[in-house]
Amino acid sequence: MFLSFSKAAQAGNDKAQVLLGLAYNSGAAVEQNFVEAAKWSRLAAEQGNPVAQNLLGQLHLDYARNGTWRTCNVSSGAAAGLLG
Asked: What is the pTM of this model?
């Protein structure tokens, strides 16, 4: 499943990009990587995806507050509607 999202994200699908951002943020199905989380969230946010905009904002806010990347508290439920 991760591979299909990855291919769709690379093709420019904003929903797949935000799902990758969420996966990298939480470490679900892939090694946790906040730089990748920000990368994919930014790509989706630039296309107007509100979930990605929220995730990206939280990543940057957390980094500004703590000087380090940490898992953002974005529920997987926020992304559930992306596939519908």
From this structure: 0.76
